[in-house]
Amino acid sequence: MARSGDVTILAGPPFSFRSPVGIASSGSHLWVTNLKGNSVTELAASDGHPIRKISGGAYGFDRPDAIASDGTHIWVGNFYGNSVTELSASDGSWIGTLSGGAFGFENPAAIVMSSGHLWVANFGGGSVTEIDATDGRWMRTVAPGSDALNEPCALAIATGRLWVANCGSSSVTVMGATDGSYVQKLSGSWFGFDEPDAIATDGTHVWVVNGEGNSVVDLHAATGTRGAILTGASFGFRAPGAIAFDGAHLFVTNAGGNSIAKISAGSDRKTGTVSGRAAGLDIPSGIAIANGRIWVTDAGSNAMTEIASMVPGAGS
Q1: Distance of CA 77 to the CA centre of its chain
Q2: Model confidence pLDDT, tens digit, residues 31-43
Q3: Are 129 and 137 in contact (CB under 8 A)?
Q4: How far apart are CA 74 and CA 52, in angstroms?
Q5: 3-state SS assignment for residue 209
Q6: Strand pairing partners for 289?
Q7: Torsion of CA 79, 81, 84, 87, to 10 degrees
Q8: Nearest CA to 226 among 249, 256, 206?
Q9: What phi, psi does 170 have (nearest 5°)?
Q10: Strand order of the sheet with strand 205-210?
C-alpha cells in the first residue's frame, strides 16, 4: 500500500490481485474479480484493508469478470465457465453456482440487479438471462432476434426498463425490466454509438460509454431520445471502458490513456483528471464509488487505486 496525497495504491501480496477487473460494493465491503487469478478479493470500503481472498474449485470461478451486489449477496459472472457464482456478502462464503443449459449462460459479461431479480448479459449468446435473486431460480432467457442483441456487454436499469449495450452492433437495446419484453433498439449515426462497452444511469439519464468512439452518449431514460454526445480533446477519452455516477458527477476510466475523467453531469463539462502510473493507473478497468471515495481496478499493474477526495484539485 502506497499513499501520495489523496491517492492510495493498493498492491502486493496482501491483496492477491491478478488482472483485477470488476468491482462492486456491498456497503461496508468492496469485492473485486481477478480475471486471471480465478478469484475474488474482499476489502474494507473504509480504508481498502484486505479482508480475504476467495478462490478454489468449490467456487467455480473461471475467468470471473462481471460482479454485482444487493448488499446481502454477491453475484460473479464466470466468462469462460458460462456460470454465475453466488456468495454471501457477510463472509464471502459460497452459496451456489448457477450453470447448465437451463440458465442459458454463454460468456456472461455483465450483471445488474432490479427488485430482487438478476439480469445477466450473455456476450456469446446474444441474449439476457433473468434470475430470481432470492433463490437463484431461472426465470427466463430472452433473445429477441432480428439482431436486437449482439454481443451484449453492459446493463443498466432505469424507468422500469433494462438498457443493454451491444458491443457487436454499436447499438443499445431497451427491454422491459420485469419480463424482458422488447421495447426498442437505438442505433445509427445520430446516436453516435461505437462499440459501447459500459453504461450507467441516475434514473433520468442513461450514459453510454463508447470504447472505440472515445465518447459518452447521454440518453433520456423516459424516451430513449439522445441528448449530448461528450467527445473531443477537451474530455480526453482514450478507450474509455467503465463509468460511475456519484449523484453529481460522472467518472470515466480510460484504459488507453491510463486516466480517470471527472465530468459534471449538470453541465456536461470535464472538471478534473487523474492520470499516470504515479496514481497507479495502468489499464484502469473497473470503477465504483463507496464511502466517499473512488475505487479503480488496474488490470495492467495488478493493483487498485483509491482516491480519497474524489478527484484531487478538480473543482466542482
Answers
A1: 12
A2: 999 999 999 999 9
A3: no
A4: 14
A5: strand
A6: 294
A7: -110
A8: 206
A9: 50, 60
A10: 196-201, 205-210, 215-220, 226-231
C-alpha cell at 67: 460482479
pLDDT higher than threshold 70 for residue 244: yes
Please, is 13 exposed, middle or buried when counting C-beta atoms within 10 Å of its C-beta (0-12, 13-18, 19+)?
A: exposed
Q: Which of 193, 228, 187, 199 is nearest to 214 (CA)?
A: 193
Written as one letter, the residue type at 126 is: G
User: Nearest Cα to 37, choosing from 14, 53, 58?
Assistant: 53
Q: Is 43 helix (H, G, I), strand (E, B) or coil?
A: strand
Cell of 293: 471515495
If you count DSSP H runs as helices and E runs as strands, how many of each does the chain have, helices first?
0, 29
> In what side-by-side order are the strands of the sheet with 303-307?
2-4, 7-11, 303-307, 293-298, 284-290
Sign of torsion, CA 250 85 91 74?
A: positive
The pLDDT value recorded for residue 272 is 85
What are residue 58's phi and psi, to 5 degrees?
-65, -25
Inter-residue long-range contacts of 89-93, CB under 8 Å, 24+ positions, other chains counted? 89/26, 89/27, 89/29, 89/31, 92/40, 92/42, 92/51, 92/52, 92/54
Which residues on neighbouring strands pair with residue 30, listed in sequence order?
25, 43
Rg for the chain (alpha carbons), in Å?
Answer: 18
Distance CA 246, CA 12 (A): 29
User: Which of 46-55, 141-150, 201-210, 241-250 has the lowest average pLDDT?
Assistant: 141-150
Amino acid occupying residue 142: V
Altogether, the residues listed in the chain come to a count of: 316
